[in-house]
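Entry type: protein chain
Record version: 2
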Amino acid sequence: MTETRTATSHSRSRRRAAGGELHEVIRAIQELTLELAELRREKQIGPKLEAKEHTLEQLRWRLAAIARRHATDDFGAAA
């Protein structure tokens, strides 16, 4: 019984941590998307825009990794 509680508590704690990380990444993606839209609207093309686009792509990959990790945590090896 203790092992079940410990495993459940550990699982909940990991889910909360993943949720915090998920929120952080989504927020960063939203902010960066708005910044990019502003730069494009002002027709500011150059290294600054390219760097932000690259960062956005990295954040999208990070989001995908978090989603995969979360799916694996929830459903085990089946995911």
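Comment: The chain has a mean pLDDT of 81.
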